[in-house]
Amino acid sequence: MLSPELLHGLRNLSLAARQAAEGFLNGAHASRRHGAGMEFSQYRPYQPGDDLRRLDWRLAARSDRYYLRESEVDTSLTVHLLLDASASMNHRDDNGLTKLDYARLLLAALAYLATQQGDAVGLTVLSPAGLRHLPPRADARQLPRLYHALETATAAGHFPDAATLAPLTARRQRALTVCVSDLYEETGEIQALLTRLRAVSGDVLLLHAAAHNELSFSYKGPITFRDLESNQTIQLDADQQRAAYLQQLQHWLRETAQTARRQGFDYHLLNTSQPLDGAMREFLRRRNAT
C-alpha cells in the first residue's frame, strides 16, 4: 500500500483514489450474488427441485443435458459519506499532511470502491458555514463531482450546530453512513448527529482520524499549543507532560470507542500516518454485512 504522503504527492485525487482502492477490488466484489435475477452470469447443471422455468431448453437440445441459467441479483446500496470540516481537521502531522488531507484521500478511495460495487454514493461536507451536500447517485458523472467537492473542501470554525445539521436527518433514507472525523466536539454534537442518522438511515461506520504526533506525543521540550477552533494557547514542557498526556489520551480513546459502540456505531481508529487499507477493509466488511 502507498503511504498517505505518496498518494497526496500525486496531486491528483482521482488517480490517488484509484491507486489506493484497486488492490482491494480483486476478490472483494460483493455487490452482486448469483440467483434468479435479470443479468445473465453463467450456467450450472440442473438439480432436483430447481425451478424448471430457468432451464435453458436450447442448450438441452444441443447437449442432451439440462442446465440452468444463473444470473446476478443486484444488491447495491446507498453510501453516504460525511466529512468533518471543522478547523481541528487542519492539524498537521509529522509527515506534512493534515487530517483533512488524509480524510480527502480516504473518502475519495471509499467513493471509488463503492462506485465499483455499483452503489449510489453521496457526500456531505460538514462546516459551520453550512452543508455542502451531493445527493447519492450511481451514474458515471458522480465520481468527478465527489472528487471536486473533496478537493475544494476547507476546514474552518467549529462543528456545525444542530440547526445547520437538521436537513441531514429530515428524511428517512436507508444508507450506510461513513463519517470521517477527529471527534473534537464541545457537547457531544457529533455523537448526537450520528445517533440521529443511525435512527433514520441505518448503519453508521465512524472512522476516527488521529494524527501520529497526537497519538505518540512526539513533541520535545518547551512548546506552545494553539487550539485551532478557539485560538486559545497553552505553553508547556512536552517531555514533562508526555506520560500524563498519553495516559489521558488512552482513557479518552477507550471512552470514545465504548460510547460509539454503545450507540450502535462501527468504530475504527485511524492513524493518519498509516496507509488507507485498514479503513477500506472496515468499509468493505461493513458494506458486505449490510
TrEMBL record:
Going by the entry's taxonomy, the superkingdom of the source organism is recorded as Bacteria
Q: What InterPro entries is this protein classified in? A: DUF58 (IPR002881), vWFA_dom_sf (IPR036465)
Q: Where is the DUF58 domain?
A: 42-248
UniProt xrefs under PANTHER family: BLL2464 PROTEIN, DUF58 DOMAIN-CONTAINING PROTEIN
Q: What is this protein called in UniProt?
A: DUF58 domain-containing protein
